[in-house]
Design a protein that fits this description.
The chain has helices at about 1-30, 35-75, 80-115, 120-150. By secondary structure, it is mostly helical. It has one domain. The two termini are about 20 Å apart. It binds protoporphyrin IX containing FE. Protoporphyrin IX containing FE binds near residues 60, 143 and 151.
Length: about 150
């Protein structure tokens, strides 16, 4: 059961983050003014931010709870579990860092700026979209790398 929750949360996180790169950024880029671009991003981030943070929490917690069962499955060789999981956990750590960059570093700041009616910087908007696209793709690739390493152990 834990294992399935771990996998489903991972799949949802991967899909939602790929959606940011594939749909949210291009949709915002098609808007004419920077004000419209920010409003378009904020519509998605209001939903994506709490969802992604919750999913990352579920991924980490169900992963941590699976460690005991995983050790059991290794039997007498249980002490080698760190060897099996080391790369996987290093990558999972990077997924959390990069996912936090998208949600808090970029998304949540935009939501706050919109809520506080802060002026939108026209000149900085295209840089922000490029950064967001890069951050979302980085998170997607790191998540895929973690899945591949986890599946090969
Ligand atoms: C945050 C990104 C993470 C991703 C994308 C991820 C992905 C996966 C995947 C795809 C599997 C299935 C591997 C298989 O085919 O057997 C798996 C298994 C596992 N993961 Fe994670 N995981 C993440 C985080 C964590 C964390 C933080 C921990 C521990 C603290 C963890 C511990 C485990 C364990 C112990 C298993 C093996 C479970 C078993 O075989 O019963 N994972 N993970």
């Amino acid at each position: 059961m834990l294992f399935w929750i771990h996998l489903v949360a991972t799949g949802l996180f991967l899909g939602a983050t790929a959606g940011i790169a594939l749909f949210t950024v291009p949709r915002a880029a098609r808007e004419t003014t920077a004000v419209e671009k920010r409003a378009s991003l904020v519509r998605t981030f209001r939903v994506y931010d709490p969802l992604a943070i919750a999913l990352l929490g579920v991924m980490v917690m169900t992963g941590a709870w699976s460690v005991t069962g995983f050790k059991q499955s290794l039997g007498a060789d249980y002490a080698s579990f760190a060897e099996h999981l080391a790369w996987k956990l290093a990558l999972a750590f990077l997924v959390v860092m990069s996912g936090t960059w998208v949600t808090f570093g970029i998304g949540h700041r935009l939501v706050r700026q919109q809520e506080w009616d802060e002026p939108v910087d026209e000149a900085k908007m295209s840089g922000l979209l490029a950064r967001l696209r890069g951050a979302a793709w980085t998170t997607v690739l790191l998540t895929i790398a973690t899945i591949v390493v986890a599946a090969r152990r």
